[in-house]
Fold DMT family transporter.
Amino acid sequence: MTAVTPAADSRFGILMMLGGMTLFTLNDALGKWLVAEYPVAMLLAVRSLFGMAILLPLIAREGFGAVFAVKRLPVHLVRVFLVTVDIACFYWAVGYLPLADVMTIYMSAPLIVTALSVVFLKESVGWRRWAAVLVGFVGVVIVLNPTGQFDLLPSMVALLGATIFSSGLIFTRLLREAGNLSLVSYQTLGGLVMGGVALPFSWSTPGWADFLLLGLLGVTALGGHSLINRSLQLSPAAVVVPFQYVSILWAVLLDLAVWGTQPSLRMAVGGTLIIGSGLFIFHREQRLKQGAAAGASSDHI
């Protein structure tokens, strides 16, 4: 039997991140389409309901105790709360802004992860990466377009969601020993509970076509969560997080194809700064790891 090397783990992790982000972009586009007719809480609850319907046979096979009796339960619950609020922020913001704009703001996640990793993962971040974080957030400000009053609130909600999303990534990394089924089941159940609380006040009966789209929303969300969770378990966050940028490409194409929206100049300029900064951070982290592996004293960069 051939052993799986760390390099192979990283390659699998990258592929899973790419697949997960592709599914999430499709999910986000469906959410943008549906949020024009249905409240955010309903989208959360119904998509989670479909997700749980898919998960229940898997949970029954593994055993409910094995799936839900986890170590570090408080960390799981905090992660569930963070990811659910992040999803709600995204769906609300994308109802007002182009999909690519919101996705670009969310792509500041590697910058936020870099900053949060100092606190939660006790990682050392050198001045070059801090400079890249600063440049990246200049890009975020450009995308936010603070002089455009109509777009400011949705843009700020998107930035809040990106920050919460980044925190969720950190907590997922802290739970690297947890089973993938446990992570996805807790997240799906949490979305069902949190969305369900508001459901009596926000229910709107969908037609059959929208009902099927709501079901697809749950399927793509479940697939995306599963792939990204597994990706973060196989590979360090610094390796796989940069590959989230593929979602911007899909978002631009979907904006053009479905809504006829072309990317704005500020999104292109700000997005370039955000992506460039994220890739620079990734490059510096890889150089540091290579130097450490070679025995070089490059702990401070």
DSSP finds 13 helices and no strands in the chain. The chain has a mean pLDDT of 84. Residues 82 and 238 are 20 Å apart (CA to CA). Residues 6-293 form one domain.
